[in-house]
Write a structure and sequence with these properties.
It contains 3 helices and 9 strands, in the order ααββββαβββββ. It is an alpha+beta fold and about 150 residues long. The chain is globular. The protein starts with a helix and ends with a strand.
């Protein structure tokens, strides 16, 4: 009788210990997978705000490119795609901004390091499926959604 009580107590203690242990490896792997999915060259396709103003960025003389690099840096630049504009001798790439990025859960923080100033922008990642990246950024006046396509 005593032995079965001790075995039962030991069993419940072991069960409690196993159920209370955490598995941070799965959480870290999920965060790393999300980071890997946003890395790459993204071309701005459209933007829209909460005031229902939509802008189609396709079929323009230049593309706005967000290049998120694996090493924690990013660059936003314009690149000419219209052959007529390329013939004019203009630079093919014009940098807008660059800096460092970090991702925590679905919050993408971009720390811009411009010549004279440094500022931070926070974006919520609404969707990132490998082919399309949708971000949301809110300020006091409006919320802006940007849709990027992977290139």
């Amino acid at each position: 009788m005593k032995q079965s009580t001790i075995n039962l107590l030991l069993f419940f203690t072991l069960l409690l210990f196993v159920s209370c242990s955490t598995n941070t490896e799965k959480v870290e792997t999920k965060t790393e997978q999300k980071k890997m999915s946003i890395i790459g060259r993204w071309v701005l396709i459209k933007s829209e705000d909460s005031g229902f103003r939509k802008t189609d960025h396709q079929n323009q003389p230049s593309d706005v490119v967000l290049n998120i690099q694996k090493n924690g840096f990013f660059i936003v630049y314009d690149t000419l795609v219209d052959p007529k504009w390329r013939k004019k001798g203009l630079p093919l790439i014009q940098e807008r901004t660059s800096g460092q990025w970090k991702l925590e859960d679905s919050l993408l923080t971009m720390i811009h390091d411009d010549k004279d100033t440094s500022f931070t922008e926070d974006f919520k990642i609404v969707r990132c499926d490998g082919d399309e990246l949708v971000t949301e950024r809110s300020n006091k006046k409006t919320t802006v959604y940007r849709t990027y396509g992977k290139k």
